[in-house]
Amino acid sequence: MRKIRFMIPCHANRVQFFGPISQGNFLYNLGLNKRLTDLTYDKTPEEQEEILNDVEKLVSSEYMGDRFLYICAQRTNKINAPAGSFCFQMPGHFINELNSCVDDSLIGYVRTYDYLELAGRAVITRSPIPSVAVISGNGAGHEPAMVGFVGRGLLSACISGSIFASPPSADIFRLIVEMKRRGAKQILLIILNYTGDRLNFGLAMERSRELAIDIDMLVIADDIALNIPIGPRGLAGALLIIKVAGALAEQGKNMTEIVDVCQKIRAHLRTIGLSASGIRAPGHQQSFDLMDDEMELGMGIHGESGVQKLKLLPIRQTIDLALDQLFIGPRTLDLQPDSSVLLFVNNLGGCSNLELGIIVKEAVENLEQRKLNVKRVICGEMMTSFNMKGFSLTVLKLATDMSSSILNLLDAPTDAFAWPKVISPTQSTNSIQALSDSLEFNEQFSSQIVISESPLSFNSSDSELINQALQGIVKRLYSEADELNRLDAVSGDGDTGTAFMRAADAIARDLANKKLVLHRPSSLFRRLGLIAESRMGGTCGAICGLFFAATAKQLSLSNQSQKIIDSLCDAFEAGIQSVESYARVQPGDKSLLDALIPAVDYIKSKRKQQIFTSKDWRELAFVTERATQETRNFIAKVGRAAYTKSVEITVVDPGAKAVSIIIQAICDIFIRANIK
Known about the structure:
Domain DhaK: 97-419
Shape: elongated
Catalytic activity: FAD = riboflavin cyclic-4',5'-phosphate + AMP + H(+); dihydroxyacetone + ATP = dihydroxyacetone phosphate + ADP + H(+); D-glyceraldehyde + ATP = D-glyceraldehyde 3-phosphate + ADP + H(+)
Distance between the termini: 95 Å
Strand content: 5-15%
Number of domains: 3
Subunit structure: Homodimer. Interacts with IFIH1 (via the CARD domains), the interaction is inhibited by viral infection.
Domain DhaL: 464-668
CATH superfamily of the largest domain: Dihydroxyacetone kinase, domain 1
Protein name: Triokinase/FMN cyclase
CATH topology of the largest domain: Rossmann fold
């Protein structure tokens, strides 16, 4: 196709030309999507399909003869595009151009896996084509479906359309003919129940029959949320049927046998989707809006809204609500106690793997509580809805007469990269070992070690003040947790306050249960070290654990003749040295040591005194807070903050701030005691 270039005469010195740009890209960036949304808002599905087909002709190079435009723009300091190019950015997406992103993606996948080849937008396996070629297809945006399921023992080929748009019938027909040319005796199309797919694949099938090609089509409609005249939507459960069909084809079964098995499975298959967000795919408007505390139940995989908008619930309740549809929804499954089922948990694109593990746990336990036998669990990101933060749950009832054969077909080997390589029988709860609390384990383990306890001890009045100081620390750490998290979020992971609050929880419980030996310094600091190790986690937890452990060890070597302040000074110094040795952290590295070291140095400067005065306690608090404020100007060299560049560089170190809070709480108690 020749390029038609519109030359615009312009002689202004500050005007620069950019181009060529495709007419499709030009129209999209003029707001074609918004106009399209407005046009199709209140139309019937058939009218929407007609509009979409017309738009496809308007923007597609196939119909427009590769028409390109040149754009002239007023030159400003902000324009840095090279001459002869024009770039429209798609905010929030890592793509080149909207109208090439699908092709670019397919090329990337095919270049990664040597058993695939690409013809246009058709991905074809290089493995020998079986007698029955199983073909599927859909719009892009659901990756890895369907490109990830092409391979020996699964799909012989798939065809992709534009984002969330059915492949054109001409492309589908061309792929069917190619499969026939490569030796397929029969062609089985398996598609999801959407209007565009039924129309385009149906038209391609009719054209193929005119050429006497033996072809059939299986439409999957596994959505449990909707039961409307055009039928339920097709969702991720279709992948189970596609896998069974591919495995049967690999065994050499004919199309009638394959369709018969797949139809039986289809009758026992149900899927429900849930999401905590809409979708914003390249070139598409936001599908639906949800507040941070909302979720959508029963939505489709193209961003279409679901049947109900609900408040976001804990995942256990969310799973229960979704699986209720199996029993009370419009398309219930005949599930009796002791029925065997397969569970398929599908990530719609935006769920973290951590969340996915929780979802699987809750779904399996929920089905088991309903007296169902979960024989298999399949889990992964297999049919997405671009980047939707959601998931779908598919339940397949395993009929008694077919259970073993279906599981064998699902377990049959395939080289398709997106199908799980290992699917094992569901583990029983016997495989899950519940360990005792790590803090108590450490305490018990420590009790088996012969530890020489120092006779050094506090008197009863000092022990009571330590009790009050610890209670004060707990209260202050609770009240300052959010502020510490805010400080940490600037350049870390935003959990310093939470970590210290976990330690405060353990201290509060120990105080209530009288587990802290308040009169014995070595025992007290050993327990505080175990709490830091077991409860805090992260860099702060390790530093505090090292400091208290070394402090306790040094205190255990003290003798009765030493003054308490001398023993404490030596112990604190040992704690600092231990941290510096293991953490390789030095003063000025922007860590909690930047507050702790000046505090210890101040205490050491008073070791010749018998007691701390109120003035000394106030100065200790002042010295610690001043040192904390000085960390604003330090560059972080330890912890996660060392790996990040922060815009807000004048924030204090959150660990140092926590030390200041703790010391201030201690000082407040002893100042009040001295005043009395």
